[in-house]
Amino acid sequence: MTEELNIRRGVSEDIPELVRLYDETVGHLESHVNYPGWKKGVYPGRDAAEEGVETGTLYVAETGGRIIGSIILNGKQEAAYNGVSWGVEAEPDEVMVIHTFLVHPDFRKSGAGKFLMEFAELQALREGKKTIRLDVYEKNEPAVRLYERQGYRYVATVDLGLGSWGLPWFKLYERTAEECLNGVLSRISPLSAGAAELASLTWSHVAKPLYSLGILEEDVIKIAGISETQHVDIGKRALIIMCSDNGIVEEGVTQTGQEVTAVVTENMTDGNSSVCLMADRAGVDVFPVDIGVSRDLRSGARNPLIRKKLAYGTKNFHKEPAMTRETAVSAIAAGISVAGELKEKGYRLIATGEMGIGNTTTSSAVAAMLLDRDPAEMTGRGAGLSDEGLMKKISVIREAVKRYGPECCDAIDVIAHVGGLDLAGLTGVFLGGAVYRIPVLIDGFISGTAALAAAKLAPAARDYMLATHVSAEPAGRLLLDELGLKPFVAAGMCLGEGTGAVASIPLLDMALEVYTKMSTFQDIQIEEYKPLAPQTNSGAH
């Protein structure tokens, strides 16, 4: 396929073309080998297209303005599904089912089918599904091969009641949310080297000493590579604040109680918090997300609450794991989902923040385990612990690391045992940035811990992250060093909420003013600076 393939939600204007797609596909099957046993004018037909469009569950694959494939994704399970021992126990609203999946015969070997299946998996994650399921006629050998290549596991063979059509037996397949996540992460693409090179060339022509804006120049080049164009635009930017409570507060590791989380989160929706005021000044839209606050929240009108609640806080990891691995995966998926929603709304830059009493304790524990460092190196006073409180905090973390460390095989396990839902959600935001090609700003210690977890799960995601400031928390610098990222500023900040990330955005704006508007050496008719070896960031003329 020479032209780009795009997948979008079907609309009513697509129905005539969808009917033609169905008829031409079935006509081809009937004249060759009708693997799925479909009947022209019966199934798939207009009724399926109209219902899919009306419910918003039908998606089309198009290239060159032509619809070449289609898929319906909903929760409708056939009655025969109920008598099967699925690999994942899930409520009906936690299941996505693939229906009416087809590609036009002219494009069978174009990769469109695989692309649609990959889209389905990403959509399942975005909708918070625990599993994705499908059925296929047992003699539909091409479809069976595709599903098995995509990692779907055979579950059972059942009768769907279509014997009168000559279709007595159907195979059932399943893929878990975690398997979908792994598949999505494996497909993260590298930055555009061409766009980055053009951005670097643009900087070299700007009438100033080479490399004199230092890290700001480097990050503009990185954003160009992320967005696949040297024409860098971060005019529409968002702050995602993941909000949740942490059971570890029971151990007295914080100065305040977890009731504060709910109060501050609600204030954020009213625009009344430190980061909201800073965001107003920086032209940043604020999106508070309730992913696990300990009570139900009202939402203000200024920054409406995004509701992704998975639990009313985590468990006390001093007594038991903070959450299940399945819940951690769901929280990561929620973060990916929010990033995807913002990309669809036209946002070009995402800052990260959090709100959750006790989250410096969870982050210190996660960071200690991911970096294999003594918790004392990774643990600070948070919102203001006494010496005695700090020692207790370190002791609680050290004990948890010793107890759970041998059980953890990856970053998801670490988060599940000692992390928080806010941290898991932020991990998903960083991964979502890589999936949807949006630069994501690391805030401070908690955000940095989530960024490290994301990089552990998908090393390619590191290229989509930008460091903003060095947190005053003890592990702030260690995390950035591990990620290989250089911050804009070191201002001694440790407020959280995304304040450091938001405070850094005006610096990027100013750098882009120079990048886009400054005269070139040619404009002012003087000779360009020549690169020296080694290159330096000296701004001396």
Describe this structure in words.
By secondary structure, the protein is an alpha/beta fold. It folds into 2 domains: 6-186, Aminopeptidase (3-Layer(aba) Sandwich); 200-515, 3-Layer(aba) Sandwich (Rossmann fold), CATH 3.40.50. The chain has 19 helices and 13 strands. The protein has helices spanning 15-31, 46-55, 112-126, 141-149, 177-186, 193-205, 214-227, 259-269, 274-282, 325-344, 359-371, 375-378, 387-404, 411-418, 421-436, 445-457, 476-483, 499-517, 521-524; strands at 6-9, 58-63, 66-74, 95-103, 131-137, 153-158, 170-176, 237-244, 284-292, 306-307, 349-355, 440-442, 465-467. A 7-stranded mixed beta sheet has the order 1-2-3-4-5-7-6, with helices on both faces. Strands 10-9-8-11-12-13 form a 6-stranded parallel beta sheet, sandwiched between helices. Strand 2 and strand 3 form a beta hairpin. The longest helix has 20 residues, at 325-344. The radius of gyration is 26 Å and the shape is globular.
